[in-house]
Amino acid sequence: MKTISMKPGAVAGVLFLAVYTVMVCAVAVVFPDANWDMIAYVASVLEGPGTAVQQVHAQAYELVRQSIGDGAFLVLTADRPYRIEQYANADAFASMLGFYRVKLLYVEVAQWLAPWFGPVGALRTISAVSVIAVGAITLLWLIDQKSLAVAPLALILLILTGFGDVARLATPDLFSAAFVIAGVLLYVRGHDIPGGLFLLLAVLVRPDHLALVGIMMVASVVIRPVAKGAIGAFVLGLIAYVMISRTADHPGWWVQFWFTNIEYVPTLEGFDPPFSLTAYGKATVQALVRALVEERWPAVLALMIFLGALMLRRDFDFTRRESVALTTVLLTIPAKFLILPLYPDRFYFAYLLVFGLILVAVYGRQGRPVFSSE
Predict the structure, then answer these.
(1) Angle, to 10 degrees, between the axis of helix 349-366 and the axis of helix 151-160?
(2) pLDDT 10s digits, 322-355
(3) Mean of the pLDDT values across residues 143-171?
(4) For residue 249, is it left (φ>0), alpha (ψ between -120 and 50) or beta?
(5) How far is C-alpha 142 from the chain's CA centre?
(6) Which residues are within 8 A (CB) of 330 and not within 5 positions of it... i.e. 6 or more apart?
(7) Which long-range CB contacts under 8 A does 314-319 form with residues at least 24 apart?
(8) Which residue from 17, 52, 180, 311 could staple onto 316, CB 3.0 to 4.6 Å apart?
(9) How far apart are CA 349 and CA 127, in angstroms?
(10) Element (DSSP H or E) covering residue 261
C-alpha cells in the first residue's frame, strides 16, 4: 500500500494551509462584510407565493439591520441617491431583484437553510461552508498531485487571489468558485463527467460561468482530449440560463451592462436604453482603468502568465488536459470582461485560483527551479 511522503516542509505547508482556511472561515463568520447586494439576496430568499412587495422589502431591510451595526446600515441606506431610493421605494427595489433571482441555486440553497439560520444567516453559512470547500479542494489537489511540499505556494496563492475578501461577502461568488475549481480540476484528472456536473452547478449558481464552460468545450475540441462533461454542461447550462432568465424577470444583457457600468437608475420599470457602441466602449475602458488602479486581479493574472511562460521556457511538462484548462482560463477572463466589464477581484477569484493551482502542481511534481542564472 502506497503511503504519502510527509517531509517536514510538507507537514508545515499542510498545517499552514489548514490553519489559514479555518482562520478565513472564522473571520467570515465573526467579521462578515456588509454589502448592498446582501439586501437583495435576502429579499430573494424571502420571496414566495403570495408575498407582497412591501412585505419583502420591509422584512429584508429589517433583517439586515439587525445583523449589522448602525453605521454599516446607514451606509447601505443613505450614502448615495440610489440606495436612498431603494430603501424608501419598495417597487423600485423589487424591480432590481431580477439581477439576483438568476443565481437560482444560491437562492434555493439559502431558502432551504433559512428555517434553521434565518435568511441572513443562511447566506453567511453558505459562504463559510464554501471557504472550507475551497480549502479542502486545494489540499486534496496537492495530495493528488504529490505536491504537498509546495503547499506554502498554494497558501500564498489563496492570499494573492483575495480568498479572505470574497469569503466575508454574502454573495454567490465563493459558492460558485468551489464548483468551478472542482469541475476544472476533475477534468484535468480525467474525470470528465463528474467535472461537467460541477461546472453545471457553477452555472446554476452564477450563469456568467457559462462563458468558461463554453470556452472550455471549444478549447478541449481543439487541443484534446474533448471534455465531454463540459459539452453536456454547456448545453444544459444554456437551456437552464434561458429558462431561468425568463422566469426570474432578468432585464437582459444591455440593461444590466448599463446599470452596472454606466448609471445606477432608481428603477428598472420601463427602463430600456438603446444600445450604444460609444457608451459600451467608454464604460469598458473605465472599468479596465479601475481594475488596474483599484484591484489586484490584473497584476496576479500577469504574474501567473509570466510564471507559466517561464516554466514552458524551462521545459516543464504540461499535460494536454492542463493545457486545455490553462487556455480556458486565459480566454475566459478577457471574454467575460468584454461581455460585462466587472472590475472587482471577486469575479475572477475562481479562474485565477485554478490557473495558479495547476502551475503549483506542475512545479511540485517536477521539482525543478523555475528561475535560473543560465
Answers:
(1) 160
(2) 999 999 999 999 999 999 999 999 999 999 999 9
(3) 93
(4) left
(5) 21
(6) 305, 355
(7) 314/368, 314/369, 314/370, 314/372, 316/362, 316/363, 316/366, 316/368, 316/370, 317/362, 317/366, 318/362, 319/188
(8) 311
(9) 14
(10) helix 253-261
